[in-house]
Amino acid sequence: MYVMISTYLAPLEEVDDAREDHLAFLAGLEERGLVVSAGRQQPAVGGVVILGVDSEDEAVKLMTQDPYVQRNLAEYRAIGWQPSRGVLAGWKNPS
Question: Residue ranges of the domains in the chain?
């Protein structure tokens, strides 16, 4: 599992102009069983996407397709993570 933490590179108004496309992109990943959870940081300086993938390379490649990245509105940092407590402990990809 990888936690992808984004940082916005443009003013929030510009990011929000592309938000619909970004959310559609995430919905597509979710339909494929790849998104475990996602949401905007508070304050709105970026977001977090938890991906149910096995490698950092796969996580990074997926997120390069994000409209935010393609439009140079955000960048992501990948953090490998294996939850051992709480509702995600032992999480398995449903597909």
Answer: 2-80
Largest CA distance in the chain: 38
Give 2-37 pLDDT, tens digit per residue: 999 999 999 999 999 999 999 999 999 999 999 999
> What gap in Å lies between CA 91 and CA 65, rounded to an integer?
25
pLDDT score at 95 = 62
The pTM is what? 0.92
- Return the CATH fold of 2-80: Alpha-Beta Plaits (3.30.70)
Peptide bond into 94 cis (omega under 30): no
d(CA 60, CA 42): 23
Beta carbons within 8 Å of 14's beta carbon, 6+ residues apart? 73
Contact by Cβ (8 Å): 2, 56: yes
Other C-beta atoms within 10 Å of 92: how many?
6
DSSP state of 68: H
